[in-house]
Amino acid sequence: MKILNLYAGIGGNRKFWDKEHTGLDLDITAIELNPDIAKIYQDFFPMDKMIIADAHQYLLEHFKEYDFIWSSIPCTKHSQLTWLRALSNCKQTGAYLAKPEYADMKLYEEIILLKTYFKGKWVVENVIAYYPPLILPTEIQRHWFWSNFHIREIKLDADNIDKGKIKEWEQKLGYDLSPYKKIDKRTILRNCVRPELGLHILLESKRNIQPELFK
Known about the structure:
single chain, alpha/beta
């Protein structure tokens, strides 16, 4: 089974994608733009093919080569935190705490591309946004998931990295980032999809039930 893992980060979603947990023979290609983060991913998953590239462009050029595609496109321009920062104007000066920005429509470009042209199974992940979704997702924990297969609910404990210490989250996600310097460990860990959730979704893709997500 050929898997494309886009915007791979350090591979939280991918951590349990192995023969032991899935019963599948997996050939995984990871795409990550930041070389320092790609190095961490490669250290933890040396058998994966790591490509340092623009994941959005790579998807467009190579999607036909894979059986399963996971995309965790950056969430900054969709997150509720970004919106709150932009709209929380100072009562004394009226100035915005952050400059308002357009939501990044690459998210929906990828969903529409995969829905229209890709013949395999796919899932696109992002945070719960500050606006109503333009295409209906499945909501699990702090994530929205768009897919061409049904994802059943999974019960996980509360997921809020802002209230935990970095060491606690390293233990929770199964990573030791102490050898790595000059990286924002909290942001890197925050961007991870929980390994249990990543495994659950991959296994759900094998059940082959189609959702009604595109009304």
